[in-house]
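Q: Predict the bound structure with 2-phosphoglycolic acid.
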Amino acid sequence: MASTPPARRLVAGNWKMNLDLDAGLALARDCVRELPNPGYPVVLCTPAIHFAVVREALSEQGGVYLGAQDVSRHESGAHTGELSAAQLRSAGCDYVVVGHSERRADHHEAGAMLREKVDRALAAGLKPIYCFGETLEQREADQVEQVVAEQLAEGLSHLEGEGFAEVVLAYEPVWAIGTGRTASPGQAQDVHAYIRGWVAERFGASRAELATVLYGGSVKPANAGELFGREDIDGGLIGGASLRAADFAAIARAYA
Ligand code: PGA
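A: Predicted complex:
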């Protein structure tokens, strides 16, 4: 049965580039109805076109938060198409995804850019949901821990403990994202235990004990309970299944 301490629990939906304005509003309303007072943070990371209407829908009850899927590395100014951390905050976002594998792949996000995004988010009062994970080739070459350590370090090791305390970690093996192929609970737990060890080494044992470490990659109602029941898996970052309120709610309730 579930052993995740309630203080570490969090479930986030990543809508990616899906849903028009009306469909996004309808989904947010359904999520709120399906998840009355979830008891731990539930986050909807929506496209920016939805912020205003979703914020309104979420204001009717507590516990469900708005998140963005990316943030600019720049503070403000002549950066066409970008959204700053302060803009996201002013639109009602509390969380922001940083370093998703789709952005690492499509937009070559890495290294200094990720550090700057994390810093901008923290400075504006946003909690970064920092994503990392290996490809199938890297797993097959036995490089999982090395890749995870490198990706954690590139975005986070410059932080002080206080900044780090605001960060949510999301381990998302690239081969499991959108493929229907989920890491087994044992495979995920092994990596999550390694991640918590990495945090303990950089930021101390008590930060590691409190860190929220999500799993992402084809989480569904049918596998969420078993994943979230593992000692170091605190919740999930949910893509496809977050587009159906009933499935997303079933996943968000899977701790019990
Ligand atoms: P998925 O996506 O649940 O559709 O695999 C997860 C993610 O990319 O965050």
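A: The chain has a mean pLDDT of 96.
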